[in-house]
Design goal:
The chain is mainly alpha-helical. The protein has nine helices and four strands. The protein has one domain (about 5-130, about 155-185). Helices cover about 35% and strands about 5% of the residues. Bound molecules: zinc ion (ZN). The site of zinc ion has 7 residues, from α3.
Length: about 200
Amino acid sequence: MAKVSIGLRGWRFDEEEIISADGELKPLDEIPEEPRERLVRLVGLVEEPCDVCYLEHGDAEIHRCAQAEIVYGEPGGEVLLCPTHEPDFIYWFREAGGSDHTGRQAFGDRFHEWIAAGNEAPDGYASVEHVEEDPGGLPDLPDQTEIQQRVEDEFEGDRIDIRALAGENPTDDESADRLDENDLADSGVDLSTEYPSNR
Ligand SMILES: [Zn+2]
């Protein structure tokens, strides 16, 4: 089954679970729960800055932060990265105990703490790391922005279902244009998510 990324590299989806035969994103209610949660979560992540940039520059210099292009970890406990900072994450994951936190909501927090403590990948680590798996080999997908829009549109039109998915009562709705950090974190669902391979 082909694996595809949408919006951000890192999380990968089984193509046939999320894309219909005519190449469109399936309606959300036809997508299995686990990939659906990640898709919904992605909507709130695609515009976010890289976590490492953000830890360096903060809100005061948010303009200096690169936009995230990569996501790893669990929905609600994920790590967002720009390509410059991906080696720091890969190093932490493989060499500094990061993989011990695989599958846990605290995954992102542990990485952020490691960065905040002043750690980083050794010089040159980037050169041995992360070769994109066959970047030209991704299936022919609709434009990613279009998929993103589609998810957002369905989310808007299907707010109650999505909020139920996040384990919330559909009461106080107008403030809930998109899920916040806690909605999915509180859902307590155990998700199997893609991580870098340990080599
Ligand atoms: Zn960065």
